[in-house]
Write a structure and sequence with these properties.
18% strand; 3 helices; flat; alpha+beta; two-stranded antiparallel sheet; three-stranded antiparallel beta sheet; 142 residues
Length: 142
């Protein structure tokens, strides 16, 4: 996911190089949490289990082998393309130390950032509400 323009200045100038190093050299093109491969289409079930074609087995969200799903679960599978991103473990984009960075797929990255995203979303909603009260009274959109 691209970096929002208002947050771009928090990242170091060589961020694309650092991110590529983490995703493709250190992690070898696989998510460091669940081992999903970058850029490939995978078959994924609703509960997150996915089929690793290279290993020929079904894996869970931690990359551990799980039993084959039943026919009902297989009927609900979807194809997903996996893209790796580089996550800051402490949620500070200025801290680009290698021990603070991990290569995550979209699913793992969103799971890791869930609490921080919720706080950011609440703060934006409060700011919109306050701005409406300040200039035009209660905001009719909220």
């Amino acid at each position: 996911m691209p970096i929002r323009p208002e947050r771009r200045y928090f990242y170091p100038i060589d961020w694309p190089i650092i991110s590529r190093q983490i995703r493709f050299v250190r992690a070898r093109g696989r998510c460091e949490a669940c081992a999903r491969p970058h850029g490939r289409l995978i078959c994924q079930l609703a509960d997150g289990r996915w089929f690793d074609e290279m290993a020929g087995q079904w894996l869970d969200d931690q990359g551990q082998q799980v039993p084959w799903p039943d026919i009902v679960d297989l009927a609900m599978q979807r194809q997903r393309r996996i893209w790796l991103g580089t996550a800051h473990l402490d949620h500070d984009p200025g801290n680009s130390n290698g021990s603070n960075l991990k290569a995550f797929c979209q699913r793992c990255h969103l799971r890791h950032d869930r609490a921080a995203n919720l706080l950011r979303r609440r703060a934006r909603a409060r700011a919109r509400r306050a701005l409406g009260d300040l200039f035009t009274g209660p905001n009719p959109l909220l």
